[in-house]
Queue: 2 jobs
Job 1
Amino acid sequence: MERRLAAILAADVVGYSRLMSADEEGVLAALKALRAELFDPLIAAHHGRLVKLMGDGALVEFASVVDAVSCAAAVQRDLAARNAELPPEQRLELRIGVNLGDVIIEGDDIYGDGVNVAARLESEAEPGGVYVSEAVATQAAGKAPVGFDYVGEKRLKNIAEPVKVYRVDQEGRSIKRRSRMPRAILFIGLAAALAVIAAVALQQLDRGSDAPEVEVAEAMMPAMPTGPTLAVTPFRNLSGDPAQDYLAEGISEDVIVELGRYRDLNILSRESTETYRDAGMDMRRVGQALGADYVLEGTVRRAGDRLRVTGRLVDARSGAQVWSEAFDEELTASGLFDVQQRITERVALAVGDFDGAIKRSDARRARAKPPENLSSYECALFQPGLLYDRTMQERVSKCILRVVDEEPGYWRGWAQLADALRVDVMRFGGLYDGTQDEKLARAEAAARTAISLNPDSSRAHYVLSHILLLGHDLEGFYAEAENALAIGGDRDVDARVGYWFTWTGRKEMGAALLRRAIELNPKSTREPWHRGLARYHFLKGEYEEALAEYRKGAQPDLWWSVALEIAILQKLGRQDDAIAARDRMYALRPGIRISDIVWLYRRFQRSDADSVKFVEAFRAVGIPEGDYAPLDLGEAG
């Protein structure tokens, strides 16, 4: 294995998925031209080596950090000039990140933290911008034909320590190490605003008028997580080869960083758990010593081209095992770094996700408590979108209303209130006062409050996106859905965005998101995943595939789920089965007509064209027509 110090440039096309969904052939042609006429020549001119292309991205290695920065700046400068001559719909923009670090060489490929940091810097950069690490800025200052503007310390995904980030300034020639205040957050009502301002004023009086700005920023930081504390003990190397210790160490560290994205979990640092390496430890004692509610331990075994990682989550209060799973990967199909990242994501998802082991365990405990005894975290564990029991809905709704009243700074309470109002609208419920439009307005305000308190919550952005979709704001839906996907860290959110993309015109991207969610968590029973794929295949005329996916995610207690089953069975020629399904739907929703179903579909579909096959099937099984406007087939679905 060879290691060397290198400057790494990572580049990515902004909004690639959106561009591809609009004009796949045009985007591919523009990318090819961009490479041939601009990107590749500039890499060669600055003595770089194109390591690999990754769809819409590229990874380039340089021996000189000055060459790497100069190349990045030239690419963005020339691309801006190129775009100025094109209409907006034909422009491609790049984000670029540059890092200087140690890399591991494997054939023509490179991987390691040096590469990972470059990729994460790229994802943080603004369109048309270049972000670099402090090592790059320090070494290139005064040598590269650009300056560097300090952005601040950022916690980057899968990177253990915060990274000091600088923005390349095309007009400058020096390093500007100035601190930056975060954007002012939106306060919840006048009382909350006055409380924050008063707290800051008192701090300034205590510290004197020359107190640094960073103290004000800290006063405005969100509250610490209110959920359980999790300790991740070092994963043990079972390969029998001490040279593989680095792999176990890397996976342990990556899991800690990835779990840190779940804002309701207190994740103990690696240093806190470093001494707890021995097999067969009593997890209750470990938890007691560390003050942890849960302990996650694991093993790593590499044998030839196979890698197996196991994880086990223990409730430190009872000693009970609440989750365990083994993850197997083939190392020949992709680089070790990609495999490590994929396993890390799967472990973190299984443990910390919205539908993960910790949330399920805590939710079971919370369901046994009276509503008035539930903490804000426990109230937020309930999922209004999945609660079909009226009594449970009322219980949870009261709990959520209490949380936002007593703890107006708790973002998840507002997110759950928005979600509960959204569900009430979808089901024509009466848990909350007001008309449907008034509930939607309250839901949108609650979701925006949650986002103002925690802009990095993909779930809050998703809830807002679906509320906007219910309000027929398709562009707003796309914008917030893309925000949720860009933040990432919640595969349930990714899948739900994918589900609604299959309704709103972005079918291929929606199906890809759903398949990815299933791949990462094949044991999950989350209904939108397979049902979304069933709808996708149905609209493509692939009825056998549609039925197979539907069977995996059927919800026989929901009439709109059974409506999809009716349509699939009828198109397969299974008339008797379709009629039996129709009768089951009648039992769930007596008196339902085609007009009711079309009304529901029109709330979410981009056009009426997607309703045609459904309406044909519903008519064929004798569902009454009802009164609705004729289908408008002028726009392709």
Job 2
Amino acid sequence: MIDNAGILSKLSLYAKLAELYEKNPFRYKAFSTAAFNLKKVKEPYSEMSKEALLAIQGVGKSVVDAINEIIATDTFTDLQELLEITPEGIVQMLKIKGLGPKKVSTIWHELQIDTVADLLDASRQNRLVEVKGFGLKTQADIIRAIEFSFTANGKWHFARMLEPATHFLEGLKRTFIGSQIEFCGEFRRQCEIIEKIEILTTASQLTVQDYLQNENYEILNNQENCIQTLVLGQFPLSIFFTNELKFNKELFEKTGSSAHLESIEYSNNPMDLKETEEEYYHRRKLNFVLPEQREGLFELEPDFPKEEFIEFWQLKGVLHNHTTYSDGLNTLEEMAEFAKSEKYEYLGICDHSKSAGYANGLSEERLLLQMKEIDALNEKMAPFKIFKGVESDILNDGRLDYPDDILKLLDFVVASIHSNLKMNQDKAHERLIKAIENPYTTILGHPTGRLLLIREGYPIDHKYIIDACAANQVVIELNAHPYRLDIDWRWIYYAQNKGVMISINPDAHEKSGYHDMYFGTLAARKGGLLTSNTLNALNRESFEAFLEKKKRKSMNLA
């Protein structure tokens, strides 16, 4: 039988839905007030008489009738009628802390957003800031509330855990000088989704226990050679203990996935206690595998790269960025000046295109105006250069949403799907292939549209899409935002073997967004991306030559 909490949630949800649809204000206020006062009642409502319920302040006959109907059927008629006409995503929004019916109504009707995933994506792209009743603080609160809501499944983005985990590790190293202390497990492998932080140390378990207690960490479990606690009160952390002699061996064993250890037949050929990881691979006549690549997928293939993997400091340009011309927070000049101050050689501006009305997409006239401003800034900021680009929406039929006479004026085009994401593989392929075959498409943006932990991407056959990019000399984006990391790193090996270049793009909607390329680089290295195959690792002159070659080809094909 449904308990008091379940009944209250249904009464509260009805009050919110009734307000959302602007039903009789006296009725939804009555249900809201009744739900608030009923929280104070400890006795099960199912065991209370009608008279006892009516005696509670603010509880009227319609509320009592609803309670009795919920007890009997798990719902009540008025609530069911509203649920039947309300998208599930809107119902979920009403459960997010800080989002009342009025704000949800604005999000739904003005921004045309009806899923929590799309709300998070819009918030990340600063599309709520200019809406009446919202602002930077409200937008930030919404992001935090949504993030909190999906951590309940015990999984987190690596990027979210990196800073607190690193801070904790550094605290241990400062305290236990002389002890070996390193990350291991999925955290050392820099997996994009993490369930727990794991650390291996030679420090004494007893002294680490004392340290945790002195620092007010709650010890959840303290067993032989392992202590479990939480970082920031929410991120699970396991600290494993060993001695100096066994440290290298246990670090290796606790880092590689079970699939990797199986692929190298580790149980039959374990590491010698005196060996380093490099020495172990060498003795086994295997190429050294970076810790982050030990996933048991393709890292042992003969043609998998052995060195010269991309590093963050090697990125020379920042491509795919938004400004106040569309839904960015910073002006074109601010984005350029910041990129220059960060020692990048060039910047690629890709504001949203005209069909993206939800993001203040650029009409042809506004795009031409932006190009003029870019010309003026390039004269002022040389040798730093801003390249003229756009993130052109891939329409439902696969066309880009500007005519050729506009596209040919641009230095490069990122083609992305933003609308009608609920499609089967055939429809996704139809749209993507037509866009890839457009001679003006330079980069395929976030190929699946996924949001990690939040929204599955639309289904694609990665090999089919990568092959099409290879045939049309289209670069594939690794969208570096930690929620996306799209293309998935698991397909970089295949793409690279097909000769397809990868561009690590931040999809930045403000200056600080450039820093997300760090997480994109980590994902790229997991997939074995070489510096030589990374588009924005080209220096300015080489990148410019690449674009000129692509443009000449597009002119011949158009």
